[in-house]
Design goal:
Number of helices of chain B: 7
Number of strands of chain A: 31
CATH topology of the largest domain in chain A: Neuraminidase
CATH class of the largest domain in chain A: Mainly Beta
Structural class of chain B: alpha+beta
Structural class of chain A: mainly beta
Number of domains of chain B: 2
CATH architecture of the largest domain in chain B: 2-Layer Sandwich
Order of helices and strands of chain B: HHHHEHEHEHE
Oligomer: heterodimer
Strand content of chain A: over 45%
Helix content of chain A: under 10%
Radius of gyration of chain B: 32 Å
Strand order of the largest sheet of chain A: 1-10-9-8-31
Radius of gyration of chain A: 23 Å
Largest sheet of chain B: 4 strands, mixed
Distance between the termini of chain A: 39 Å
CATH superfamily of the largest domain in chain B: OmpA-like domain
Strand order of the largest sheet of chain B: 1-4-2-3
Largest sheet of chain A: 5 strands, antiparallel
CATH class of the largest domain in chain B: Alpha Beta
Number of strands of chain B: 4
CATH topology of the largest domain in chain B: 60s Ribosomal Protein L30, Chain: A
Chain lengths: ~425, ~210
């Protein structure tokens, strides 16, 4: 036990660092709504102001064309000259007032420039260091009002940062900022998985020098071992109700899929092959699992009832297929395809059986849907470094987020939180 | 007289030693012959003493040369034998010192080229019941991290099988997989991948 305490430490205080990541956005959609985000009154200069964060959030969904205000600077509806905004369908504007005691008051409006009406008007008060959270909250409301789909800019992501034999399990804002370490270790960390309520993360840690599955609370930082059988324990996946965990164990020889209660009790074996069966993921209704298996020679995606039974092959692409994830609406699944020396992020439509390539190919691994299904987060590599990337679900807009240190691996998008 | 005998003895010793310094047992033979010659020499008349001593010295010198030649030949043969034994030992040591075996792409079966290495480790474990090893499976990065964890586990398991077939007890060998998490070489090329598709046999794993 002492050795464990020596080799890892859990960080209890949140570390809000600035600009851990730099962002690059490319591509354009065909049917994008032209919107403009006007610099808020009272915004300080410098990088990543509230209006810029809102702009970037909207931009990387691929659904909007961001029109530069070009000198036009209304902050309230009465200041808007509609004739100046021809071709712009909506604008976001507002103001920031600093209050006594370090709080700031942020008022914003969303205008429909075609109907000349105010779609949203809200005032938020928060501590000054919560600017990013306020901006993401505004972007969520704007996105939902304009598209009818909840925004996911206030959600969080988790990933592993590997830096010269030093491993960190990191939780960050959906745009990669606001990193907090959940676990530090000298041994590898793998396969983080968010509980459906966003309160816990299951993951694989090698701190005991073999793969063991842990579940850790984000609020209390407490954690417990949930799978520590002889051999490897890995690939945790939560059922949609948060009551079950699918895991992969080698306790009965080769890697097979098991389902157990989230506290580690009630273990039941689901697959029975002499091949590698791994990377289980639950369907949205909890009735099925997708998983990767080499039972057919190459690695392909299969489906099996969550209670067990015969498996059905789901993919027939040339090459090897890994890391399946259902879309939030359950109508498709994304996975990693390795073919011709490159990894691609692809989506398989369960209705039409058609496969769409969402990435250009490279070192693109581990897709993970945003909870509204509009973006897919994945790991890629640029100039030998592992970084985060996202692509809009139509494949048109791509974004890369480069970390300042280390390689980013195994990203996973967290759930939509109740607000 | 004694001076002469002593000098003959020394001469023989020096001759023997200088030609076969590593084999002192060979050098013991010529002094025995020399002492027999010395007894004969002692029975001779004093007038003949000088001539006899000269003859004895000459014979002793000749004997010493022959003995030295024989010693040199034997030493050379011994050295060759020793070298052969050392080479064999070195080969065995090399097989034991080689603690990694390598695998073909997406294959978990041990390669024929690594059988000797595993046989040597199996024998070593069979001869030392207290020894324990941790067999650590790894994979290259061309797959998902979870698939590679599973592949590394299968490689470790198959390596353990060969060790047990070579004499190790199953209880002496534990297996673990690190998948693609601990590459021995960095880079997206076969040179690196071939180093990373490996199983390490770790004697210092502690538990």
């Amino acid at each position: 036990m002492f050795r464990v305490l020596m080799s890892i430490w859990i960080v209890f205080c949140s570390q809000m660092a600035n600009a851990e990541l730099s962002i690059e956005i490319s591509g354009a959609g065909e049917h994008q709504t032209p919107v403009s985000v006007v610099r808020f009154a009272g915004e300080e200069g410098g990088t990543q102001s509230i209006s810029e964060i809102i702009s970037n959030d909207l931009l990387r969904t691929g659904l909007f064309k961001l029109i530069h205000p070009a000198g036009r600077a209304p902050h309230v509806m009465s200041e808007v000259k509609y004739v100046d905004w021809y071709g712009v369908e909506a604008i976001v504007m507002g103001s920031i007032t600093l209050q006594e005691g370090g709080n700031m008051l942020v008022t914003f409006s969303l205008l429909d420039m075609v109907r000349r009406s105010e779609l949203l008007k809200l005032t938020v008060s928060a501590p000054q260091d919560q600017g990013r959270a306020i901006a993401h909250g505004i972007a969520d409301r704007v996105f939902e009002r304009l598209t009818g789909t909840p925004g996911v800019f206030s959600t969080r992501i988790a990933y592993v940062n590997r830096d010269k034999g030093h491993y960190r399990l990191v939780v960050a804002d959906s745009d990669g900022y606001g990193e907090q370490d959940l676990l530090n270790s000298r041994e590898p960390i793998m396969s983080p998985a968010w509980s459906p309520d966003g309160a816990k993360i299951a993951y694989v840690s090698f701190e005991e020098r073999r793969a063991i599955v842990y579940v850790q609370s984000l609020s209390t930082r407490e954690r417990r071992v949930v799978a520590d059988f002889p051999g490897s324990n890995s690939a945790p996946a939560w059922s949609p109700d948060g009551k079950k965990l699918a895991v992969v164990l080698t306790r009965d020889d080769t890697s097979q899929i098991y389902v157990m209660n989230a506290d580690g009790t009630g273990l039941k074996r689901i697959t029975f092959s002499d091949a590698i069966d791994t990377e289980p993921t639950f369907s949205v209704d909890g009735k099925f699992l997708l998983f990767a298996s080499d039972r057919g020679g190459t690695v392909q995606i299969y489906r099996v009832a969550a209670e067990g039974g015969a498996a059905t092959r789901m993919t027939y692409e040339t090459g090897n297929s890994f890391s399946p994830r259902f879309s939030p609406d359950g109508k498709s699944f994304a996975y990693t395809l390795f073919n011709g020396g490159k990894f691609y992020i692809v989506v398989n439509d369960l209705g039409t059986q058609q496969v769409q390539y969402l990435s250009n190919g490279g070192w693109d691994k581990k897709p993970s849907f945003a909870p509204n299904g509009k973006l897919i987060l994945f790991a890629t590599e640029v100039q030998g470094r592992g970084i985060l990337a996202s692509v809009s679900s139509d494949g048109r807009v791509k974004q890369k987020l480069a970390a300042q240190r280390g390689d980013i691996r195994e990203p996973v998008w967290g759930p939509l939180l109740k607000r | 007289m004694k001076k002469i005998l002593l000098s003959v003895l020394l001469l023989n010793l020096l001759a023997a030693c200088s030609s076969a310094p590593t084999k002192p047992d060979v050098a013991e033979v010529p002094p025995a012959n020399t002492s027999a010659n010395a007894d004969t020499a002692a029975a001779q008349a004093a007038a003949d003493a000088q001539a006899a001593a000269d003859a004895a010295a000459a014979k002793a010198a000749a004997d010493a040369q022959a003995a030295a030649d024989a010693a040199a030949a034997k030493a050379a043969a011994d050295a060759q034998a020793a070298a052969d034994a050392a080479a064999a030992q070195a080969a065995a040591d090399a097989a034991l010192n080689k603690a990694s075996v390598y695998f073909a792409t997406n294959v978990d079966a041990v390669q024929a080229a690594d059988k000797d290495t595993l046989l040597a480790h199996g024998k070593k474990l069979a001869g030392d019941a207290k020894a324990k090893v941790r067999v650590e499976g790894n994979a290259d990065e061309r797959g998902s991290s979870e698939y590679n964890l599973a592949l590394g586990q299968r490689r470790a398991k198959n390596t353990k099988k060969v060790l047990v077939l070579s004499g190790a007890k199953a209880s002496q060998v534990t297996t673990v997989s690190y998948g693609e998490e601990k590459p021995a070489a960095a880079g997206h090329d076969e040179a690196a991948w071939s180093q990373n598709r490996r199983v390490d046999i770790n004697y210092n794993a502690g538990k």
